[in-house]
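Here is the promised in-class demo. Please do not try to memorize the tokens; focus on the logic of going from shape to residues.
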């Protein structure tokens, strides 16, 4: 049987509990260097490290809004979730307004205004993302 743990519990329990589980899926925010470094301290063939870039600390609600939280959790629990399947499901984020907003804000914060403008135009053709629309006015 596999396991799903929030990151805080994953950190505390990794030493004593992970070896007892047949498989563990650890989903980390790749933009948080400290969390990623800490989670990758774990070793073992049963630990699967999966990244969730730009989804932020509301990871669970983001995955739920995209409709992929249940398949990820169920796959992790029964031990059938593969990295390939996870990242295939995660491609759904490209159409998520929350992810699009974060990507747009990141382009602006890095000083890539031309990229932000073209990305903003592309996003607004897909959906009426209020945060992106307001950000485009400010550019």
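The designed amino acids, position by position:
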């Amino acid at each position: 049987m596999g396991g799903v743990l929030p990151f805080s519990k994953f950190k505390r329990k990794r030493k004593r509990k992970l070896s007892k589980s047949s498989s563990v899926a650890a989903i980390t925010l790749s933009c948080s260097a400290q969390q990623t470094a800490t989670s990758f301290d774990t070793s073992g063939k049963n630990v699967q490290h999966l990244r969730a870039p730009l989804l932020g600390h509301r990871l669970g609600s983001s995955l739920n809004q995209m409709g992929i939280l249940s398949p990820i959790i169920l796959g992790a629990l029964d031990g059938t979730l593969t990295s390939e399947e996870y990242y295939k499901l995660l491609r759904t984020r490209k159409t998520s307004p929350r992810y699009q907003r974060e990507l747009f804000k990141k382009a602006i914060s890095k000083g890539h205004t031309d990229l932000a403008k073209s990305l903003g135009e592309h996003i607004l053709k897909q959906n009426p993302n209020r945060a992106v629309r307001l950000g485009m006015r400010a550019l």
